[in-house]
Amino acid sequence: MTTVSDDRNAAERNAESGLEPGLRERKKQQTRQAIHEAAFRLIDEHGLEATTIDQICQAAEVSSRTFFNYFPSKAAALLQLPETPVTPEARARFHAARGGLVWALCDVVGSSSDGRPDHVQMKQLIGRHPELITTLSSLMLDLRAQYVSLAAERASSPEQAELAVALVMAAFGRTMHESDSEVPLVTRLRRIVEQFQGALDERLPE
Amino acid sequence: MTTVSDDRNAAERNAESGLEPGLRERKKQQTRQAIHEAAFRLIDEHGLEATTIDQICQAAEVSSRTFFNYFPSKAAALLQLPETPVTPEARARFHAARGGLVWALCDVVGSSSDGRPDHVQMKQLIGRHPELITTLSSLMLDLRAQYVSLAAERASSPEQAELAVALVMAAFGRTMHESDSEVPLVTRLRRIVEQFQGALDERLPE
DNA sequence: GTGTAATATTGCAGCGCCTGCAAAAACAGC
DNA sequence: GCTGTTTTTGCAGGCGCTGCAATATTACAC
Question: What's the predicted TM-score (pTM) here?
Answer without folding.
Answer: 0.87
